[in-house]
Amino acid sequence: MRQIPLAALVLGLAGLIPFLWGATNVAYPPSLGWVGGWLQPMYRGTYVSLTYGMVILSFMSGVLWGFAAKARGAKAALGYALSVVPALWGFFMVNGDPGNAAVNLFAGFAGLLMLDWFFVQQGLAPSWWMRLRVLLTAVVLACLAVPILVE
């Protein structure tokens, strides 16, 4: 298995910041005061995790679409169909009550990891992909577990 390219690793880890921030706000409410009054409420607590999580599910749909574009025929058609699932899951399932939305977002990221594995098994994703995705997904799921368990 090849090493994860440094740029992909650094950017992936940086992409965890909003999830970590949201989990910190829920687990340690005084952290909400660390940014003063300039940060809008939607960028704090559970809401930042939910909003950003939706963005990332949609982004990952685009990534998977790119993997599907490397295939041909029925394999490509299946890849394209599966690639839209994370974005559609987020759109239809991550809404309403923040607690339920967090549970559904958690499920969406767990499902996304299964899709990542599928694309690797099809030879459409890079050899290092699962190493990166397991690392990032583990942190995302831990962060999303905070509002599910605490609130």
From TrEMBL:
Keyword flag Membrane: yes
Top-rank taxon: Bacteria
Entry annotated with the keyword Membrane: yes
Keyword field: Membrane, Transmembrane, Transmembrane helix
Chain ranges passing through the membrane: 46-65, 77-95, 101-120, 132-150
UniProt name for this protein: DUF3429 domain-containing protein
Species whose genome carries this gene: Paragemmobacter kunshanensis
